[in-house]
Amino acid sequence: MSPLMQPIEQIASTDILSCTPETLIHEAASLMVQSGCGSIVVFAAPGQAVGIWTETDALAVDLEDAAARCRPISQVMSQPVVTLAHHLSVHDVLGQFRSKGIRHALVEKEGAIVGLVSLSDVVLCQGTEAFLGLKRLDGILAPPAVILQADDNLSAALSSMREQQLTAVGVQFADGSYGILTQRDVVGMVAAGQGDVELGSICTRPVIGVASSSSLLQARRVILQHQIRHLAVFDAEHKLVHIIGFREIIQSIEHEFLLELHGALRERDEALLQSRQSLLLADKVFEATMEGIVITDGNGFIQSVNPAFSRITGYAREEAIGKTPALLKSGKQSPEFYEYLWRCLRHDGFWQGEVVNRRKNGLLYTEHLSITAIRDELGECLHYVAVFSDITQRKQAEERLHFLANHDALTGLPNRTLFIEKLQSAVEQARQFDRRFALLFIDLDRFKMVNDTLGHHAGDELLMRIASELQRIVPNLSTVSRLSGDEFTVLLENVVTVQQVASRAQSILDAISAESTVAGQGVFISASIGISMFPEDGAMADALLVNADTAMYRAKERGKNNFQFYTADMNARAIERLKMEYSLHRALAQDELDVWYQPKVELASGRIIGAEALLRWHHPDMGLISPGQFIPIAEESSLITSMGDWVLDTTCAAIRRWRDAGLLQGRIAVNVSGRQLKYSSIVDSVAQALERHGLPSSALELEITESVAMDEDSGMVEVLHRLQALGIYLSIDDFGTGYSSLSYLKRLPVRGLKIDQSFIMDLHQDRDDAAITQAIISIARSLGLELVAEGVELEEQRRFLLEQGCDCGQGYLFSRPVPAAEFEALLRQQPR
């Protein structure tokens, strides 16, 4: 929209300077000077404007007459005040200003005064640069400047301004320089009571001006920069030729606007003719096109559809009009899909893509859809136009072709082509996120014999059974593929340990070797599996595949029905770990596990005040196995939960026995793993064990490692609070070796800390260890926590700990971990 066509409401000033009819002239002039306004509106009552007094009116005040300044404003104001409707265009307002000979008017809306518009507001409104930049000052119709001398009196200047209706006069000094006297200056003199003086003493000097070759745009910028209302125009000899104000700038804008308007009307007539022809063509295209077209209003209600819409969807025009396109919704797209679609329409005004919709008869179809928003000049959406085509058959054909090209026709598994793509993708993902994965290459043993004896149909049946078993066994997000014949691959992504892979490979061997009935015959078949690991056995997809194949042939050479890792030492470790896992399963069932106890003693007296329960495993062939070897295996294989429950129950039974014999009054501590806290019902297990053996909760202590206790995101804190609610004494084991957070420690429901033995062992000769131990003791005492020092082996260590305030310890100085019977003997040796 042209700036001269916008309504005056948009440029009018809402801050109206006003006074009452009784206000004195000099008071009104002072208000105008203080606010920098060129006019003041006189209101008899709120909303009732009775007159206006402007800078031009100030010229009529006789500055020599002191009484003239003290007359009420009602005697000299212009009346009535011109009031214009708020919707009039700036162009129309300019016409009113010119015909009525005014520079100010009030703006009225719905019977109320909402603003004041002036000639200044029109010039300052945005969008006039295009006009002003084309017009030079020497090309406008401006009267010559009226120039008075510096020794002329003020009265002569006021007389000239009144008679010639001037808003400003120039003042020339003897040295050839110029000053300027404006109507606003006169208002200030009225306010101050200025008498008749020489112009040189009161004019503004030097006068701000520009060359006559400057554009109106440059002139306006100088006016705005210096916050002035009049600008001197100098010729080439630097003589003052014009004094221009907003009036001259407005006249130039109006002239350029009229030229633009005539051109716009001509273009409009030409466009209307072209539009009629285009509409006729568009109507024919709308009816005849093979694509469905839907036109809605800005709120999404259907206003029009074409015949192709009815042919594709089954809905007649009358059934669709007034509805929304939601009548086609199939439910196959998520709410997030439609949120994104509408976000694109609102932001970009356009969206296209594929949508699954439902025909009137209930059948689904796929369409390629384009939606465009039609907006008005203000950016408001008037309509949405949707154009769509039915691509159901094409999509089905594409999907079928894609499936056949990438999948095995017999089993439906990914074929070699798709497998290579997935393997390459796995390499890239693992490299990016620093992960490991395993590739299992599976070849069936003696499969040819099944084909040769029972026929290819039986062989196919067996292959489908094995494919189904592989998909059942492998974890989610793993990929099972059939490369060719009796060769399969399994891609295990994001693995942590080799033992995970070995366990999964053994499960696959067990499933394949189970008896199968094929073509009515019972058959036994086995497999050989080769395994390569990323990144250990290859950094590229082809290297991993070749190495897994090599490992598979090694499995064949070693008797079949087994798996082999490509790396020899990895293979040996995996097999050893797998054997230990099987043995550990058996250990729990065959009473190979035992609970030993290491006393906790009072450092000052050596009296036993409790103990720590420690799990031991007596393997029938390998003897006593270190917990450091089998506890991690129990954690990874989920055996730790059942083993933990067994240790808890065994310990509670021993506590009951010793309490009944009057041997023990303190607590026995049981270690709890992170997996028990995270994945088992540890709270229920503890409560049931205490109830089963008739023990108070004060008889039991649970030790949690520091790293587990500090794991905020795993829900540990909630479990610890539930254990605390049972009355269980909770302590943190190995304190100081993990990522200690004192602020978090303060929030944990723990009552004790165990100082790790790594700090105790050298504290008598290592200043750092001694300092750390002192700090831990200080922290515990500050937080009100009890302390136990583990690994106390020397008398010097005991004395140091006692001196620093640690009262309890355990270690070889007092006793090694011992079986239950030996611990009971130690209890009996103590004075009761």
Automatic annotation (TrEMBL):
<protein>
    <submittedName>
        <fullName>EAL domain-containing protein</fullName>
    </submittedName>
</protein>
<dbReference type="Pfam" id="PF00571">
    <property type="entry name" value="CBS"/>
</dbReference>
<dbReference type="InterPro" id="IPR000160">
    <property type="entry name" value="GGDEF_dom"/>
</dbReference>
<feature type="domain" description="PAS">
    <location>
        <begin position="284"/>
        <end position="324"/>
    </location>
</feature>
<dbReference type="InterPro" id="IPR001633">
    <property type="entry name" value="EAL_dom"/>
</dbReference>
<dbReference type="InterPro" id="IPR035965">
    <property type="entry name" value="PAS-like_dom_sf"/>
</dbReference>
<dbReference type="InterPro" id="IPR052155">
    <property type="entry name" value="Biofilm_reg_signaling"/>
</dbReference>
<dbReference type="Pfam" id="PF00563">
    <property type="entry name" value="EAL"/>
</dbReference>
<dbReference type="InterPro" id="IPR043128">
    <property type="entry name" value="Rev_trsase/Diguanyl_cyclase"/>
</dbReference>
<feature type="domain" description="CBS">
    <location>
        <begin position="77"/>
        <end position="132"/>
    </location>
</feature>
<feature type="domain" description="CBS">
    <location>
        <begin position="12"/>
        <end position="68"/>
    </location>
</feature>
<feature type="domain" description="CBS">
    <location>
        <begin position="203"/>
        <end position="261"/>
    </location>
</feature>
<feature type="domain" description="GGDEF">
    <location>
        <begin position="435"/>
        <end position="568"/>
    </location>
</feature>
<dbReference type="InterPro" id="IPR035919">
    <property type="entry name" value="EAL_sf"/>
</dbReference>
<feature type="domain" description="EAL">
    <location>
        <begin position="577"/>
        <end position="831"/>
    </location>
</feature>
<dbReference type="InterPro" id="IPR000700">
    <property type="entry name" value="PAS-assoc_C"/>
</dbReference>
<dbReference type="InterPro" id="IPR000644">
    <property type="entry name" value="CBS_dom"/>
</dbReference>
<dbReference type="Pfam" id="PF13426">
    <property type="entry name" value="PAS_9"/>
</dbReference>
<dbReference type="InterPro" id="IPR000014">
    <property type="entry name" value="PAS"/>
</dbReference>
<keyword id="KW-0129">CBS domain</keyword>
<dbReference type="Pfam" id="PF00990">
    <property type="entry name" value="GGDEF"/>
</dbReference>
<feature type="domain" description="PAC">
    <location>
        <begin position="351"/>
        <end position="403"/>
    </location>
</feature>
<dbReference type="InterPro" id="IPR029787">
    <property type="entry name" value="Nucleotide_cyclase"/>
</dbReference>
<dbReference type="InterPro" id="IPR046342">
    <property type="entry name" value="CBS_dom_sf"/>
</dbReference>
<dbReference type="InterPro" id="IPR001610">
    <property type="entry name" value="PAC"/>
</dbReference>
